[in-house]
Amino acid sequence: MSADQEGKPVRIGMVGGGPGAFIGAVHRMAMALDGRYQLIAGAFSSSPEKSQEAGRELGLDPARVYDSWQQMLEGEAALPEDQRIEAVSIVTPNHVHHGPSVAALNAGFHVICDKPLTISSALAEEIASAAKSSGRLFALTHNYTGYPMIREARELVQSGGIGRVLKVYAEYLQGWLVDPIEESGQKQADWRTDPSRSGPGGALGDIGTHAFQLLEHVSGEQVTRLFGHRSSFVPTRKVDDDAMVLLEMSGGATGTLTASQVCAGRENGLRLRIYGTEGGVEWEQENPNDLRVLKKDGAFEVRRPGNAYVGASAASLTRLPGGHPEGYLEGFANIYTAFAREIRGEQNLEHPYPTVEEGQRGVAFIEAVIASSEQNQWVQL
Ligand SMILES: NC(=O)c1ccc[n+]([C@@H]2O[C@H](COP(=O)([O-])OP(=O)(O)OC[C@H]3O[C@@H](n4cnc5c(N)ncnc54)[C@H](O)[C@@H]3O)[C@@H](O)[C@H]2O)c1
User: Considering only Cβ atoms within 10 Å of each terminal Cβ, which end of the chain, N or C, has fewer?
Assistant: First the structure.
């Protein structure tokens, strides 16, 4: 980084996130929260008209709103270095992660992309190779690792605070796909239930990969072997809408991971519980500021962000004094801000944001669960 860039917002372009899209707007709020980004370009939709419409709503210079991500990368690369984008945010359906990621990295841009990394291990490997050969940075927005109490749990578990880990339980339950809403054209359901766009996993890829990444992130252990069972409770559905997985961990723990989108009434029930020889930790996304810390021989305690007793990692991800709830947007912003700091060469946290390697593991996890459930046997990961 040249000295004149120091402290300046990162100039960024977005792929996806057009009118009516879900996560693109969340990414834009996350990048705005700490003033570390300037969104100056975009190819917001596969429809050029919708891309322009999004650009107008965002107040962008029409010359920087492109008809396709290919045109955006070409157009931006042709601009003087101090004007062109430095990074690309990719918020398209899963099958449009690989193309723009590889092309952006090879064109010299940093990439921040949503999960799952892509739709096959072979394509994941190509993204990882492009990140390596280009020397550019790559972040994957497994946003739940941006919650302060997740970092508190991680610090506690990995410093031996609950003893040797024996049991791990990761659960991600939603209910919004209990009916075949894709058949009436619901935008988010439409591509998520089409294997050519979602990849081979349904609920498994969409939310199971979040639970998997969070489990490995907090426990510090890797899943080494698994036994999977997938279901499509909606009979016409071409991907799973429910998956159950038995797990063996590298440190000897065992446990389960469940991902379901047919739990009627359940909103965004991501829950992580880890128990060791001396106690445990329990956390739920719908109540993210409470971390329950269980002790073998004592009462449990609830730790909350913004208090002096929390560890350095959680403290560094908290903006407000205790009692002022922070949540989804702040967690996302923590990933974005850590990425901007890394781009600017500033000092950062350990494990500031989820990496391309974690994305590769997520894709390998999807494939292993599918292989296991098809072969009805344990599979190595
Ligand atoms: N981290 C999270 O918590 C989280 C939550 C939701 C979605 N996601 C991920 O974000 C991604 C997008 O999901 P969503 O729910 O926002 O989907 P969405 O359908 O709401 O939005 C996708 C957007 O991408 C655009 N698009 C599609 N093809 C394109 C192309 N070739 N060029 C440019 N734009 C294109 C669409 O027009 C749309 O604007 C998915 O990978 C999903 O898994 C992550």
Answer: N
Evaluate if pTM is beyond 0.85: yes
Q: Measuring CA to CA, how many Å separate 57 from each of 19, 61, 287, 293?
A: 9, 11, 33, 45
Q: pLDDT tens digits, residue range 18-37?
A: 999 999 999 999 999 999 99
Q: Which residue has the higher pLDDT, 164 or 351?
A: 164
One domain, residues 114 and 157: no
Q: Are residues 178 and 247 in the same domain?
A: yes
Tell me if 94 CB under 6 Å of ligand 1: yes
Domain harbouring 282, CATH code: 3.30.360.10
**Beta carbons within 8 Å of 287's beta carbon, 6+ residues apart:** none
Tell me which residue has its CA closest to atom 28 in ligand 1: 46
Q: How far apart are CA 4 and CA 301, in angstroms?
A: 47
Range of the domain at 279: 147-319+355-375
Same domain assignment for residues 118 and 197: no
Average pLDDT over residues 243-249: 98
Number of domains in the chain: 2
Secondary structure (3-state) at 42 = strand
- Paired sense of beta strands 87-91 and 110-113, if any: parallel
How far, in Å, is the centroid of ligand 1 from the Cα of 188? 8
Q: Is 115 in the pocket of ligand 1 (CB under 6 A)?
A: yes
Task: Give the residue-averaged pLDDT of 3-13.
Answer: 85
366 & 249 share domain: yes
Q: Are residues 110 and 157 in the same domain?
A: no
pLDDT at residue 347, rounded to an integer: 84
Q: Say if residue 164 is in the same domain as residue 116.
A: no
Q: Does 209 contact ligand 1 (Cβ within 6 A)?
A: no
- Closest residue by Cα to residue 127 from 336, 332, 358, 343: 358
Please state the rounded mean pLDDT for residues 72-80. 98
